[in-house]
């Protein structure tokens, strides 16, 4: 990678960073936080006092992808060599340790040592205790910490206890404001406009990918709370942008299906059936739901399996095309993958024993799942089928999605968590969407790869 000459604001940021013990580069995605902070870090590594230095990411893997990869690209292998197994980076002739913050062993190692320099990637994703501990390790004169982060909730510990208490702030428009806070820290706020290498097409596709909460955080660069409706972009009104009639989409289905399944015994059991259309959209084709409470009888695992299998084998209530020959039978819509609630291990092993193919434990990274569903909705790549009377293929799911809200208690703690009520359909949808991500990811990246 050839690094282009820095803008005056990027130079100012590096200059301010040098004058503080801690520097946090924060703001929009792709706003040149990493590049600028790495140039800052390199200059520091060249001149830092002797002693151990450390680079931290959320995990070893993300650190390597986000930071070490670009460093090697910038400097070449002679000046920057990463020994993965040992977690050691040889940078400009200096040995630097690397670690993932979520690795307990790494935390143990750091606990005991004095550090002269720390670089932190994605600081808001670190456990708060670990970040605080890093601060206490930087006891030598001239020791520094350089970090990058995307915005999160305004109640997040990093915002509340550090950024809001910074001594100096380089604002988004580039003004240097002596905020005079008690922490020897400079807050460096970046925006997409600060990245002069950004292709306008690429930028437009970023705009299309992020909506709602994520637009405000990752594009605008604001620290905003997760409040109110989670899928506030969802338009399921008659004629709404996320609706599609079977009469249109029925013959476009490719025959590829996935199931996301939220398991419940005293709570509802909810399976969501997804399919793809030949114009590259994900379609909610149906749901199979059973609520032991409203039905006044609980089903056992064997009964669940038999009923769900029967429903899929009989075509999952997807209507036949209007011009189908009389007497045509609906074919099975057996899913390529069935992503099962990760906490329902015994149900999953029962499915396996009964020969259920394509089983996986669902990915339960809630925030990532919600973000992906949002991106698909924003790009109009996730649609909900209905019949010619307007009856949805998945009425319970639709109802729960519209009522799906952020938990205000979690928001107060600075965390993003959906309220755990009537979330069975949304969980099932999330599992289904995550399990077929290799199919839809290229749809969202079309604009991005064109621009790259
Ligand atoms: N001065 C520059 N010279 C060359 N490339 C640059 C420069 N500034 C930014 N870029 C390019 O812009 C892209 C985004 O920059 P960078 O990775 O630093 O952003 P970021 O703010 O860390 O984004 P994210 O939040 O997504 O991690 C990078 O791929 C980088 O190659
Ligand atoms: Mg970055």
Summarize the structure.
The chain is of the alpha/beta class and 452 residues long. It contains 16 helices and 17 strands.
Folded structure, characterized:
The protein is an alpha/beta fold and 452 residues long. It has 2 domains: 8-197, 3-Layer(aba) Sandwich (Rossmann fold); 243-451, 2-Layer Sandwich (Nucleotidyltransferase, domain 5). Helices cover 36% and strands 21% of the residues. It has 16 helices and 17 strands. The chain has helices at 8-18, 33-47, 60-75, 104-111, 128-137, 157-161, 200-209, 212-219, 246-249, 301-313, 345-353, 366-378, 395-402, 408-412, 424-435, 437-451; strands spanning 22-27, 53-57, 80-83, 88-91, 94-100, 117-120, 144-149, 166-170, 176-177, 183-190, 243-245, 253-262, 269-277, 281-290, 337-340, 359-361, 382-386. The strands form 2 sheets. It has a 10-stranded mixed β-sheet. Strands 11-17-14-13-12-15-16 form a 7-stranded mixed β-sheet. A hairpin with a 6-residue loop joins strand 12 (253-262) and strand 13 (269-277). Helix 13 crosses helix 15. The radius of gyration is 25 Å and the shape is elongated. The chain binds adenosine-5'-triphosphate (ATP) and magnesium ion (MG). Adenosine-5'-triphosphate is lined by residues 1, 3-4, 6, 29-35, 148, 150, 195, 197.
Give the strand order of the largest sheet, numbering strands 1, 2, ... along the chain.
3-4-5-2-6-7-1-10-8-9
**Tally of structural domains:** 2
Class based on secondary structure composition and strand pairing: alpha/beta
Mean pLDDT: 93
How many DSSP H or I helices?
A: 16
Give the terminus-to-terminus CA distance: 13 Å
State the helical fraction.
25-40%
Q: Which distinct ligands sit in these coordinates?
A: adenosine-5'-triphosphate, magnesium ion
Regarding quaternary structure, how should these chains be classified?
A: single chain
CATH topology description of the largest domain: Nucleotidyltransferase, domain 5
CATH class wording of the largest domain: Alpha Beta
Main sheet overview: 10 strands, mixed
Number of extended strands: 17
The whole-angstrom Rg is 25 Å
Task: Quickly give the CATH architecture of the largest domain.
Answer: 2-Layer Sandwich
Taking pLDDT < 50 over at least 5 consecutive residues as the criterion, the unreliable ranges are none
Strand content: 15-25%
**What is the molecular shape?**
elongated
């Amino acid at each position: 990678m050839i690094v282009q000459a820095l803008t005056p604001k990027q130079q100012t940021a590096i200059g301010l960073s040098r004058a503080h013990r801690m520097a946090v580069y924060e703001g929009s995605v792709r706003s040149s936080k990493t590049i600028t902070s790495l140039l800052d870090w390199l200059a520091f590594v060249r001149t830092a006092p002797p002693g151990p230095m450390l680079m931290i990411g959320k995990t070893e893997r993300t650190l390597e992808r986000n930071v070490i990869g670009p460093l090697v690209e910038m400097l070449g292998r002679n000046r920057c060599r990463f020994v993965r197994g040992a977690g050691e980076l040889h940078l400009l002739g200096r040995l630097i340790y690397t670690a993932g913050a979520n690795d307990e062993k790494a935390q143990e190692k750091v606990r005991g040592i004095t550090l002269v320099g720390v670089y932190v990637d994605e600081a808001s994703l670190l456990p708060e205790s670990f970040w605080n501990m890093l601060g206490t390790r930087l006891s030598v004169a001239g020791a520094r910490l350089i970090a990058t982060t995307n915005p999160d909730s305004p109640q997040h510990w990093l915002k509340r206890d550090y950024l809001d208490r910074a001594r100096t702030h380089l604002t988004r428009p580039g003004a240097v404001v002596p905020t005079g806070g008690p922490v020897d820290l400079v807050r460096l706020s970046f925006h997409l406009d600060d990245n002069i290498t950004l292709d306008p097409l690429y930028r437009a596709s970023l705009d299309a990918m992020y909506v709602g909460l994520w637009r405000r955080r990752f594009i605008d660069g604001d620290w905003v709370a997760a409040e109110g409706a989670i899928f506030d972009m969802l338009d399921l009104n008659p004629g709404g942008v996320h609706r599609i009639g079977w009469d249109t989409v029925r013959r476009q289905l490719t025959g590829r299906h996935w199931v996301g399944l939220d398991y419940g015994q005293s709570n509802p059991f909810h399976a969501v059936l997804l399919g793809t259309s030949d114009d590259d959209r994900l379609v909610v084709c149906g749901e199979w739901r059973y609520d032991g409470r409203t039905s006044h009888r609980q089903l056992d695992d064997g009964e669940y399996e038999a009923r769900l299998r029967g429903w899929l084998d009989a075509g999952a209530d997807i209507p036949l095309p209007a011009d189908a020959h009389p007497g045509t039978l609906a074919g099975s819509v057996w899913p390529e993958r069935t992503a099962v609630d990760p906490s329902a291990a015994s149900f999953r092993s029962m499915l396996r024993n009964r020969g259920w193919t394509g089983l996986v434990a669902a990915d339960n990274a809630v925030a990532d799942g919600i973000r992906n569903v949002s991106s698909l909705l924003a790009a109009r790549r996730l649609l909900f089928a209905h019949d010619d009377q307007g009856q949805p293929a998945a009425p319970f799911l639709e109802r729960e999605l519209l009522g799906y809200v952020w938990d205000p208690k979690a928001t107060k703690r600075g965390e993003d968590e959906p309220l755990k009520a009537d979330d069975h359909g949304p969980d099932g949808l999330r599992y289904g969407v995550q399990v077929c991500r290799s199919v839809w990811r290229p749809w969202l990246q079309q604009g991005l790869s064109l621009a790259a």
